[in-house]
Design a protein that fits this description.
Belongs to the TRAFAC class translation factor GTPase superfamily. Classic translation factor GTPase family. EF-Tu/EF-1A subfamily. This is Tr-type G domain-containing protein. It comes from Oreochromis aureus. There is one protein chain. The protein is globular, with a radius of gyration of 26 Å. Helices cover 26% and strands 32% of the residues. α3 crosses α4 and α11 packs parallel to α12. By secondary structure, the protein is α+β, with helices and mostly antiparallel strands. An eight-stranded mixed β-sheet has the order 7-6-8-5-9-10-12-11, with helices on both faces. Strands 17-16-22-13-14-21-18-19 form an eight-stranded antiparallel β-sheet. It starts with a helix and ends with a helix.
């Protein structure tokens, strides 16, 4: 593709993150654009091309418009008839549904992706029509960027990119989870404090104090536990955070998109907590924070490797640029680019230096997992902080509405990650709803216990992001109150499932693994800590099939046996194991349920 196009809009805008979208509601019945219309339009376009356009090699193009997904091309929307207006509104609803409440409209672009542009007057009229359409479907619009295009005409012509966001009905905000990784002292908690509190740091860590959960964290300045912070965006794309003394409930009420940050520990001592946060909380994206003055140090490479092993899309933030010279910052950027381009990573680094870059980065990042945006900012001076906010505002969800619907139709399965006792409420569990729907008053079973049993319980109230919630849908994180249920029966790694489900409980399982790094050899009888989703337990290697022992970089199918208690697992789940410097990843290939090898 032409260099001018990538300058103009970045190459991938035509295909949205939901390219596997809804095929059943095909246009022609669902929202009224018959395939004929597209062909008629392209014929007209071709006729116009042949008439007054000499095809040159540098004609700017976007990829042709995709039927599915949340990106729509419109040449112009000037004074539509009532019938056409209704049809356009239906189309907008479809695009919003595809993007789970967000859609991007490219105005002044033909369906085949040619950037024609509009005159000032036509653009004003088109945006006015778009505003009316958005009002009709209950959404708000925000212009992301406008550009002049070099089309063969004397009048300057513009194209515009517009974000349309649906005002949430009954708290159905779009929720994205971002895990925050990076070496100790790289400024992770401070950056989150600045983003969520709306106040800059004083250079001595004032911004991060509200994020700490324990006294020793405040004293040492090191995060050792997993904390959650929220940043909201309203339907106009404005930031909604704790500034102006808002409470969490007020943020949830006024936000139509929520970014939940999972603040993880950077210190090597707390690596197991970091891995648990990455495997059990299912983050959509990972943000790797690197300090500009120290560069890639300590656990930075390890965290990058973990995110890539778990296939979490990653972007990078270089913090503390106010402390060092421009040359030092550039050296850190080059160092990162070198690491990202290595054969093991195969990433395409993209340094973000303007609002335009941030918009392109957000759209490209969701479409292609190999693109890695790099931001350089300061939590003290606030430099380039706005670019990160623009990026968060525009970044689309990874799963489209169809995948979400399919998960919601399955039986309920809730993963228990945290357990609390709250005065006057009783036992409370925190975690993620993996599939199905959970409502107040639902009867579920929780387990497995040490003997592989499940206990019955009833869900009391539900809270999401510290505000009450009636219904919990698949993929959402929440806390559930269980009333006077005995806390000693619960532990991290359990699941709460609907009674109809027949969960497979196992002591032993087979996994196909790759040994990433090991000082000696890996053989039968070796003990490792295994992470699978929210399960974290020591397991013994019972057998290595086809080989006596494993060395670094080798693959094998291994039989593991848990030491303490049986666990609920699924075939195909990602496995991550570690022991000292030994690390490996793989997939669960076979479960050996309890009944097969142990009298019940």
């Amino acid at each position: 593709m032409d260099a001018r196009v990538s300058e103009l809009f970045g190459s991938g805008n035509g295909h949205s993150s939901g390219s596997g979208g809804v095929s059943s509601g095909k246009p022609g019945n669902g929202y009224g654009v018959a395939p004929k219309k597209a062909s008629a339009k392209s014929k007209k376009a071709k006729a116009r091309l042949s008439r007054n356009f000499k095809p040159s090699n540098n004609t700017p193009y976007l990829p042709p418009e995709a039927e599915e997904g949340n990106i729509e091309y419109k040449l112009k929307l000037v004074n539509p008839t009532q019938y056409r207006f209704e049809h356009l509104a239906t189309q907008m609803k479809w695009r919003l549904q595809e993007g789970r409440g967000e859609a991007v409209y490219q105005i002044g672009v033909e369906d085949n992706g040619m950037l024609v542009g509009l005159s000032e007057e036509e653009m004003r009229a088109s945006l006015k029509t778009l505003h009316r359409l958005a009002e009709k479907v209950g959404a708000d619009i925000a212009i992301l960027r406008e550009r002049e295009v070099d089309y063969d005409s004397d009048v300057p012509r513009k194209i515009a990119e517009v974000l349309i966001r649906k005002v949430p009905d009954d708290q159905q905000f779009l929720d994205l989870r971002v895990a925050v990784l990076g070496n100790v002292d790289s400024g992770k908690s401070t950056l989150l404090g600045v983003l969520t509190q709306g106040e800059l740091d004083n250079g001595r860590g004032r911004a991060r104090l509200n994020l700490f959960r324990h006294l020793h964290e405040i004293q040492t300045g090191r995060t050792s536990s997993i904390s959650f912070e929220i940043l909201g965006f309203n339907s106009k794309g404005e930031v909604v955070n704790y500034s102006e003394s808002r409470t969490a409930e007020e943020i949830c009420e006024s936000a139509s998109k929520m970014i939940t940050f999972i603040d993880l520990a950077g210190h090597h001592k707390y690596l197991k907590t970091t891995i648990f946060g990455l495997t059990s909380y299912c983050p959509d994206f990972a943000m790797l924070v690197v300090s500009a003055n120290t560069g890639i140090a300590g656990t930075t490479r390890e965290h990058l490797g973990l995110a890539m092993a778990l296939k979490v899309p990653i972007f990078i933030v270089i913090s503390k640029v106010d402390l060092c010279t421009r040359a030092t910052v550039e050296r850190t950027v080059r160092q990162l680019e070198r690491v990202l381009k290595q054969p093991g990573c195969n990433k395409v680094p993209m340094v973000v230096s303007s609002t335009d870059d941030a918009v392109t980065a957000a759209q490209q990042f969701a479409q292609s997992p190999s693109i890695t945006p790099i931001f350089t900012l300061s939590s003290v001076s606030g430099e380039s902080l706005d670019l990160l906010k623009v990026f968060f505002n525009i970044i689309p969800p990874l799963s489209n509405s169809k995948e979400q619907e399919e998960l919601m139709q399955q039986l309920t399965e809730f993963q228990v990650d945290e357990i609390y006792t709250v005065p006057e409420v009783g036992t409370v569990v925190g975690g993620t709803l993996y599939s199905g729907i959970c409502r107040e008053g639902d009867h579920l079973v929780v387990g497995p216990t040490d003997s592989g049993q499940f206990h019955q319980l009833t869900v009391g109230s539900i809270q999401r992001n510290r505000s009450a919630c009636r219904v919990l849908r698949a993929g959402q994180a929440a806390t559930l109150a269980l009333g006077n249920f005995d806390r000693s029966l619960l532990r991290k790694g359990m699941v709460m499932v609907s009674p109809e489900m027949d969960p497979t409980i196992c002591w032993m399982f087979e996994a196909e693994i790759v040994l990433l790094f090991h000082a000696k050899t890996f053989h039968k009888g070796f003990q490792v800590t295994v992470h699978i989703g929210n399960v974290r337990q020591t397991a013994t290697v019972e057998a290595v099939y086809g080989k006596e022992e494993l060395r670094t970089g080798e693959k094998a199918v291994v039989l593991f046996k848990f030491i303490k208690h049986p666990e609920y697992l699924k075939v195909g789940a990602k496995v991550l194991f570690r022991e000292g410097v030994t690390k490996g990843i793989g997939l669960v290939t076979k479960l050996l349920p309890i009944a097969q090898y142990q009298p019940s």
